[in-house]
C-alpha cells in the first residue's frame, strides 16, 4: 500500500522530475550523489524513494516506472530493505556517529543485490564534523552506491557538500504558478531565478519586488562583487553608496546576506558543475562568474562563505549592518588579493 502511495504522490508532486530521472536511470547515467532541495512537503523523500524503487524493482513497467508491488518495492517504501539505508536527524541534528555508520555501510558490499542507496533527510542539520565525515565518502564514492541528500534549507549546507553533489531544486506546485506569474511581469529571468531561490512565500516576494528592491540590490551586489574580484578597495565604497542605503529593515539585511552566500555558491557551481548562465541567478555577467571560479580555489570560496555566515551573526549584537558588510568585504578581499 505504502509503495503505491509513493508512486501516486510523485506523479502529483513532481511529474517532470520523475520523467527526467526515469530516463536518466534507463540510460544508466545516474550520478552517485544528489541533493534534493525544496521546502517541506514538496516531495523530496517520495522522489528519492521512487527512484530507489526503480533501481531495485524486479518488475519495472514498460513506462519505466517501478511496479510498486514486488517485494523490493514494498520493502523500500516501508524502510525495510537491507540495501537501502535511510538516515534522519536524532534530535535537532545529524550527528557524526550517524554519518560514520553511513560510511561503514558505504564500504560494505550490498546484502542482496549489486547496489546500495542512502537517503539522508534534513541534510542541513549535519554538524560540521558529520558533514566533513560524509565529504570523505562523497569524494570517492564506491561505484555501487547512490546517495540522496534531502534539504529544505540549502543555504545552511556546507558548500563543499553542495559541490560534491548534483543539486536538484524541487518546486512546489504553486511556486510553479508563482514562476509563471513572475515571468509575465517585467523582471529579468536572472532576477526571477534569484527570487525563487530566496523564498517561495508570495508575500515575501511582493515585499522584495516592491520599488524594484531586488533588482537594485542584485545590481549593487554585482557591482560590489566586480570590485572584489579585482581586489579593489572600491568594494567598500559600493557598500556605503549602493548597498546600505537600500536596506529598509532587518529582513532586507538578512536577504542581502543570503544573496551574498548564494552568489559564492553559484561560483562554486560554475567551478565544479560548469553550470551555464541560464541556470544562474548571477549569470548575467557570466565572464565575471567564470573569472571568479578560475581565480579562487574551493578552500578560498568556502572560507569566504564561512566568513560571511560568521560575521553576519554579529547582527544579533546590534553591530550596524554597514560594519557587517564592511567586515565581510575586508575578509573577502583578502582571499581575492
Ligand atoms: Zn517493483
From TrEMBL:
It comes from the Bacteria. It holds the Pfam family DNA_pol3_delta2. One of its GO terms (molecular function) is 3'-5' exonuclease activity. GO terms for biological process: DNA-templated DNA replication. This is DNA polymerase III delta prime subunit. It comes from Fructilactobacillus florum 8D. The lineage of its organism: Bacteria, Bacillati, Bacillota, Bacilli, Lactobacillales.
Amino acid at each position: 500500500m505504502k509503495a503505491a502511495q509513493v508512486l501516486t504522490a510523485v506523479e502529483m508532486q513532481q511529474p517532470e522530475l520523475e520523467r527526467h530521472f526515469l530516463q536518466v536511470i534507463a540510460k544508466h547515467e545516474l550520478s552517485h550523489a544528489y541533493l534534493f532541495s525544496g521546502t517541506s512537503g514538496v516531495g523530496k523523500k517520495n522522489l528519492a524513494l521512487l527512484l530507489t524503487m526503480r533501481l531495485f524493482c524486479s518488475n519495472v513497467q514498460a513506462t519505466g516506472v517501478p511496479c510498486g508491488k514486488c517485494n523490493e518495492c514494498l520493502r523500500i517504501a516501508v524502510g525495510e530493505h537491507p540495501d537501502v539505508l535511510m538516515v534522519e536527524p536524532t534530535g535537532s541534528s545529524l550527528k557524526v556517529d550517524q554519518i560514520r555508520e553511513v560510511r561503514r555501510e558505504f564500504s560494505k558490499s550490498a546484502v542482496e543485490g549489486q547496489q546500495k542507496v542512502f537517503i539522508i533527510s534534513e541534510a542541513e542539520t549535519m554538524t560540521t564534523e558529520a558533514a566533513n565525515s560524509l565529504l570523505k565518502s562523497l569524494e570517492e564514492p564506491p561505484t555501487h552506491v547512490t546517495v540522496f541528500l534531502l534539504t529544505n534549507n540549502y543555504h545552511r549546507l556546507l558548500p563543499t557538500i553542495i559541490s560534491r553533489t548534483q543539486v536538484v531544486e524541487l518546486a512546489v506546485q504553486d511556486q510553479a504558478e508563482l514562476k509563471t506569474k513572475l515571468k509575465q511581469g517585467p523582471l529579468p529571468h536572472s532576477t526571477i531565478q534569484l527570487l525563487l531561490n530566496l523564498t517561495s512565500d508570495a508575500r515575501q516576494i511582493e515585499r522584495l519586488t516592491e520599488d524594484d528592491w531586488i533588482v537594485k540590490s542584485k545590481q549593487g551586489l554585482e557591482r560590489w562583487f566586480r570590485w572584489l574580484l579585482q581586489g579593489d578597495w572600491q568594494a567598500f565604497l559600493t557598500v556605503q553608496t549602493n548597498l546600505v542605503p537600500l536596506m529598509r529593515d532587518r529582513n532586507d539585511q538578512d536577504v542581502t546576506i543570503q544573496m551574498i552566500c548564494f552568489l559564492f555558491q553559484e561560483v562554486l557551481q560554475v567551478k565544479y558543475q560548469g553550470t551555464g548562465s541560464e541556470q544562474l541567478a548571477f549569470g548575467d555577467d557570466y565572464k565575471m562568474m567564470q573569472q571568479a571560479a578560475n581565480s579562487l580555489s574551493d578552500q578560498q570560496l568556502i572560507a569566504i562563505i564561512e566568513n560571511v555566515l560568521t560575521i553576519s551573526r554579529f547582527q544579533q549584537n546590534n553591530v550596524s549592518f554597514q560594519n557587517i558588510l564592511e567586515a565581510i568585504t575586508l575578509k573577502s578581499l583578502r582571499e581575492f588579493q
